[in-house]
């Protein structure tokens, strides 16, 4: 076996391995004995057919394929041992030729991370501001949430809630056929077809209308893209929203503890401020980590990004999945191929891998640790509001795997907090870049 180390780049080693004829022949012979013992060849007892007969029966290519399937992994293991290569994941193996047998191997290596002078990073969080417009908008949302719907005798207008009898088809195939469907008439709704809501405007109760709508070529549901739908609708009821007045009575309707509208407004303001502060905190943390990442130099193999993309796809699928629907159905729903989806997720995957590697290096450099009491406190916090399922959740979280997962999350959280303290000048620079 001859091993040639072609190059090393992007945390990957590229090898060319050429097998000796004797090594290939030995592997072919092993494959022959392995396959002949399983083959049922007419005129021969199992395991007794000569190799030439077996080759004619299953084909020389099949025998060679079996031989290479066993030979290549063995040769790879010998090669990385000979070259003193520490792989972090399975290699990519490509057969370049079979006579003689030559194959190319791409081996992912451990990432290299060199942190910059992150102790010199200074950033100031943006002050949180809650405006009167923000408060008024939140109060209006409350009004709409507690609004009632009253029947009206007039034409359909925007924002109305209508009851419909709908019959429709696409290319003579049934599409949506439903009686008493509830539909709020909002502009630019894509469902059940773009322009459907606008067709209802001006209709009166018990009146019918027929119309056709064209689905755009980029419609999310690929099976409908570019097709024309025929609709026949009848409005059976029109309701108008009646939001309550903003007064003390409205405040008590939301919660009897609110003595007046002013007390409700104060609570709304406090909630808005809490959400704004949490968002500002998260935005500032991201700004700080981005600054640390930008100051670092790192190199990692593409396999880490590909693995992260696969996790992102799984996350999306898990969030979307209903019943037995899988990846194919999800891809149809977003009108994308798997390759297009993976390409779309590539920048986010690179960011996640980069962040993870840099934060892990900071954790190591700063000697940040998590003890058992911190893990226990986190579990207590997670189960505090679990109610009747608290015992079951505690059992689930008190496994070695869960403890390790919680530990890693806490390490990331504590590391980011340390970086925030550094960026705000709350930690001495001498204590930062420990070598």
How is the secondary structure organized here?
Blueprint: E1 2-9, E2 12-18, H1 21-36, H2 51-58, H3 60-82, E3 92-98, E4 101-108, E5 112-114, H4 132-145, E6 148-151, E7 161-170, E8 173-174, E9 178-184, H5 196-200, E10 208-214, E11 228-242, H6 248-254, H7 261-294, E12 297-299, H8 302-320, H9 327-334, H10 338-365, H11 372-383, H12 390-397, H13 400-423
Antiparallel strand pairs: 1-2, 2-4, 3-4, 5-12, 6-11, 7-8, 7-9, 7-11, 10-11
Helix pairs in contact: 1-3, 4-7, 6-7, 7-10, 7-13, 8-10, 10-13, 11-13
DSSP helix fraction? 40-55%
Question: Between the first and last Cα atoms, what is the distance in angstroms?
Answer: 42 Å
The arrangement of helices and strands along the chain is EEHHHEEEHEEEEHEEHHEHHHHHH
CATH class of the largest domain: Mainly Alpha
Major sheet attributes? 6 strands, antiparallel
CATH architecture of the largest domain: Orthogonal Bundle
Instruction: Bin the strand percentage.
Output: 15-25%
Coarse structural class: alpha+beta
Write down how many β-strands occur, each being a DSSP E stretch of 2 or more residues: 12
Q: Which descriptor suits the 3D outline?
A: extended
Poorly predicted tracts of residues:
none
Question: What's the CATH topology name of the largest domain?
Answer: Trigger factor, domain 2
Structure, briefly:
47% of the residues lie in helices and 19% in strands.
Describe the protein's architecture and organization:
With 435 residues, the chain is α+β, with helices and mostly antiparallel strands. The chain has 3 domains: 109 residues, Trigger factor ribosome-binding domain (Alpha-Beta Plaits); 95 residues, Roll (Chitinase A, domain 3), CATH 3.10.50.40; 150 residues, Trigger factor, domain 2, CATH 1.10.3120.10. 47% of the residues lie in helices and 19% in strands. The protein is built from 13 helices and 12 strands. Strands 6, 7, 8, 9, 10 and 11 form a 6-stranded antiparallel beta sheet that branches. A 4-stranded antiparallel beta sheet has the order 1-2-4-3, with helices on one face. Strands 5-12 form a two-stranded antiparallel ribbon. A hairpin with a 2-residue loop joins β3 and β4. α11 crosses α13. The radius of gyration is 33 Å and the shape is extended. The two termini are 42 Å apart.
